[in-house]
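step 4 of 6: structure.
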Amino acid sequence: MNATALRPTSSVESPAAPRAIALRTEKLSAYYGTAQAVGDVDLTFEVGAVTAIIGPSGCGKSTLLRCLNRMHETTPGARASGRVLLGDVEVYAPATDPVEVRSMVGMVFQKPNPFPMMSVYDNVAAGPRLRGWKMTRREMDDLVERNLRRAALWDEVKDRLHRSGAALSGGQQQRLCIARALATDPSVVLMDEPCSALDPIATYKIEELLRDLSHEVTIVIVTHNMQQASRVSERTAFMLAADDGVGRLVEFGKTDDLFTMPKDPRTEAYITGRFG
Amino acid sequence: MTVTVTAIAPTSTIPMRHRVVVRRRVAETVIVGLLLVATLVAVALLVTILGYVILRGLPAINVAFFTERPKPFGEVGGGVAPGLIGTLLLAAVSGAIAIPVGIAAAIFVVEYRSGRFSAPVRFAAELIAGLPSIVIGVFVWALLVRGLVGHYAAIAGAVALAVIMVPIVARTVEEVLKLVPNSLREAALALGAPRWKVILRIVLPTARAGVLTACILALARSAGETAPLLLTALGNDFFSTDLLRPIGALPLAIYRYAISPYDDWHTKAWGASLVLVVVIGGVGMLLRVVARQRVR
C-alpha cells in the first residue's frame, strides 16, 4: 500500500517553509494523586497537520492528550505541571480559564458519546448553545449543516436530523461527535483513539475524514494502531512508560522517518512488534 | 505392534450421574416454587389492600363526596372536598420547597464529589430520612406553630412535609445522577461548557425520568403523612386555601372519619382512602408518561 499517496497534500510542501506551531508542550508532566503518569514531554504540533501519539497501553498517551485542553484535571486528584502553549495562550497560567481553553480545543473520545436525549441536530448545536452563542434559527441551521458536511455525515442524516443521535450506527455516532466538536470552530481537535470501538469500514471513513479535515484544523490523534498512525499522520510521537510507570516521549519526528528508520532502539522494537 | 485395550466399566457411573441429575432437578423445582410463593404473597398483599380499599371505598364515591365539605358530627352525607384541596395545596407548596432543595443537595453530593461538604450533606440527609415523622411534626410545631406563625397553619404543614421530602428527593436523585455516564459530562466539558451548564443542560435532562420518579416518590410519601399534619396543619372542615390558616388534608379526613362511631363516616374513611390512592397513583402515572416522551 502506498501510504504516502494517502497523506494530506500539505505534507509534500517544501521543508524550507516550516509551518506555524498550533500547540506546544514544555516539560509537561501529569499526575494522578501522587503517582506520576507522564514525565517531561516536549512536543510541537504544527498548524493544519495530523500528529499521532502512539505507544503501548498505559504509556500515558491519553493522559498527555487530556492535559492539552485541561480535561485531565477534571479527574479527582489529577494535576499537571509544565507548560502548554496554545498559539500564544499559556494554557496552565493561573489567569487562564480552563473553560476558555476547552472552547478553543475540541475533543473526540474513544467511545462515541452523543448526548442520548438530543437529536442529531441538537447534538451538533450543543456546543454553540452551551456556550451561549446568540444565533438565529437560520444561522444555526447553516452551522449544523456545514459541520455535518465537514464530518462527512450530512448525506446520511439529512432526512433524520430530528431523530435521536443515539439511533445512529457506531461509526455515524463517532462522526456526529466529530461534527459536534467542529461546530464551535476549534483551532485544534484532540482525538483519543477515535476508532478503537469501530469496525474497519467505519474506521476507514473516519481516517479519510481526518485527512480532509487536516487542511482546516490541527489534529492530534492518540492511537494504539500503528498502521492507522502511518496512514493518517504526518508526524508521530512514540511514548513509552519506564519501569517507574512514568510515560515519557521516546521519539518524535516525521511519520515516514519514524516508521522506516527509527532512531531509538525502543521505537524500532515497538514498531516491529517485539513488545506492546 | 500390539495394542492392549483395557476394558472400561461404565455401568456404575451412569446411575450415579442420574441420581445427581434428579437431585438437582428436585432442588430446582423447590427453589422456583418457593420464589413463586413469595412473589404470590407480595402480589396478593397488594391486590388485597387495593381490592379492599376499592370494595369498601366505592360506595362512598359520588359527586357530593368530591364537592361538599363534611357534615356536622353525626350527620349522614357530605364529602371530603376541603381535604382533597388541602392535600393538593400542601403537596404543591411542600414540593415547591423540597424538590429544588433536594435536587440541589443531590447535585452537590454527586457533581462536586471532591468537595469537603459532600459527605456531611449526605450524612445529614440520611439522618433526616431516619427521623420518625411525628418528631418532625413536633419540631415544626415548636418552630412555626408556637413560634414564627403563632397558630396552626397550612404553611406549617407544608414545611413539615417538605422536611420529610427533602432527604427522599436528595437520596433518590443522587442515585439517578450517578447513573448518568461520565462520558457525557466529559463531552460537554470538552465543548467548553462551564460546569453548572453541564449539570443543568446535560446531566439533569439525561436523568429526567429518574428525577421525576424521585419527585413522585417523595410526593406520594408525603401525601400519605398524617402525624406531622395533626400538629401543624391541624385539619379544617371548611374550604380554605389560606396558607396562614389551618387546612384539611385527606389523611386527616381519613383519620377523623375512621375514629368516629358512625357507619356512614367509616365508609367515608374508606372512600377518602381510595381517593388518596387514586390521586397519588394518577399523578405518578401522568408524570411517568410525560417523562417517557423523548426524541425518537
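step 5 of 6: annotate
 - Chain B has a mean pLDDT of 89.
 - Chain B touches chain A through 25 residues (CB under 8 Å).
step 6 of 6: archive
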